[in-house]
Amino acid sequence: MSNEKIPYKIYLSESEMPDAWYNLRADMVNKPAPLLNPETHKPMTAEELGEVFCDELVKQELDDTNAWYPIPQEIRDFYKMYRPSPLVRAYCLEEKLQTPAKIYYKFEGNNTSGSHKLNSAIAQAYYAKKQGLTGVTTETGAGQWGTALSMACSYFGLDCKVYMVKVSYEQKPFRREVMRVYGASVTPSPSMDTEVGKRILAEHPGTTGSLGCAISEAVEVASKDPGYRYVLGSVLNQVMLHQSIIGLETKAALDKYNIKPDIIIGCAGGGSNLGGLIAPFMGEKIRGEADYRIIAVEPSSCPSFTRGKYAYDYCDTGKVCPLSKMYTLGSGYIPSATHAGGLRYHGMSNTLSQLYADGLMEAVSVPQTEVFAAAEEFARVEGTLPAPESSHAIRIAINEALKCKETGEEKTIVFGLTGTGYFDMMSYEKFHDGKMTDYRPTDEEIAASLANLPVVE
Ligand SMILES: *Cc1c(COP(=O)(O)O)cnc(C)c1O
């Protein structure tokens, strides 16, 4: 196929779509450390996790031996409505940059929710339905996850209760309304629905909420009603498993044209899109079958990998969720109001954390004004309006392509374009008006936050 021009978009046919998810942990030599009970500090059992999460998802969460999970037919049918997602050759960007590098991006913004989060939302809703539950609860900050989950729940006829951080609820009314189109109930958090909400409102009247508080409310509502379970859109291993569909499709598309990537790049908030994109490639790397440079990109305002500590920490501010060993800035770390809401998480997937600790991947952090500059450079030639989160990956892909221009190397770069930015126009406006600032936490701020890490023997 070497003389054939690679098409602008490499699509797979329905029959070429992956029919199983890949569990990277099965191939890892050093497995990620187990989740711990926040009170006893003993590994979480399936029974304990089952009080909050659906049974089948608990099984997936705790499984680090089975490499493949067949994707249930019902989920594959839903995937077919918006998948396979295209792998796009960024010919126009290459031309603009005058680089010998070959740039590809896997575009996950091709569905109404506008991001990759739907890949896991539909799986989680399916298992809740199969368990005979009435519904699920969750939190949402910027709104992408809540939107994806609302779509998934309406498809399977499940009730969906979303606790939305109050400041986003007020500032992002359109996101809220999209969720209501799909039948979700959206409650600004903190609310008077829960004990934790009432307590926080009594202590901090007029608070605009936080993700940590919204998580605590969603968990409380789910744990009080046997017909409900709590679901989470990132960080967990079950989410990374479902997101492996991204990497498996990418690899299948590249294999069709015998393309071997040199560098694979993704943005990292809780790590689910990056973990999913790299999964099959990292598997080959661990098994010694191929080698790739793999780069995680995070905001310099929330630098978990690059400046955090690899330690056990709470997954949420309310300290109700299990402890996870991960790169963390401390569960009390409040990142400055970065415009990439989906990357504002103090911790990281424990699987990616282990891989990073083992030197199998790299990480870099970038300031947001550079991210928005890259977003616009990309939009103007490739057309797609990228989400600020995704644009972190664009920034580093462009930087690597420019390095190739200097050295003359024809490297193949693949990056994940996780979503579209239509709901982020206020951020683009700030950027255009020169009102966007770059905040870099000081070493002292990070040290102060890390001083509160739980002591785990
Ligand atoms: C949520 C989100 C992210 C970050 O989440 P990960 O779990 O790290 O993938 C990235 N991009 C978009 C568009 C998102 O909505």
Structure description:
With 457 residues, this protein is α/β, with parallel strands linked by helices. The chain has two domains: 8-17 and 82-114 and 239-450, Rossmann fold (3-Layer(aba) Sandwich); 35-70 and 116-230, Rossmann fold (3-Layer(aba) Sandwich). Helix content is 42%, strand content 16%. The chain has a seven-stranded mixed sheet with strand order 1-4-5-15-10-11-14, with helices on both faces. It has a four-stranded parallel sheet with strand order 8-7-6-9, with helices on both faces. A two-stranded antiparallel sheet has the order 2-3. α5 packs parallel to α6 (144-156), α6 (144-156) packs parallel to α8 (173-181) and α11 (237-256) crosses α12 (272-286). It is globular and about 60 Å long. Pyridoxal-5'-phosphate binds at residues 115, 117, 144, 234, 267-273, 342-343, 387, 389-390, 418-419. Pyridoxal-5'-phosphate (PLP) binds at residues 115, 117, 144, 234, 267-273, 342-343, 387, 389-390, 418-419.
| CATH fold call of the largest domain | Rossmann fold
| Count of discrete domains | 2
Q: Which architecture of the largest domain does the CATH hierarchy give at level 2?
A: 3-Layer(aba) Sandwich
Main sheet attributes: strand count, strand direction, barrel closure: 7 strands, mixed
CATH class of the largest domain: Alpha Beta
Parts with pLDDT < 50 across at least 5 consecutive residues: none
Side by side, the strands of the main sheet go: 1-4-5-15-10-11-14
Instruction: Sum up the overall morphology in one term.
Output: globular
Beta-strand content estimate: 15-25%
Give the helix level as a range of percent: 40-55%
User: Span between N and C termini?
Assistant: 57 Å
Report the radius of gyration as a whole number of Å: 21 Å
What structural class should be given to the helix and strand makeup? alpha/beta
Give the mean pLDDT. 95
Present as ligands are:
pyridoxal-5'-phosphate
* Oligomeric state of the chains in view: single chain
Count of helical stretches: 18
Number of strands: 15
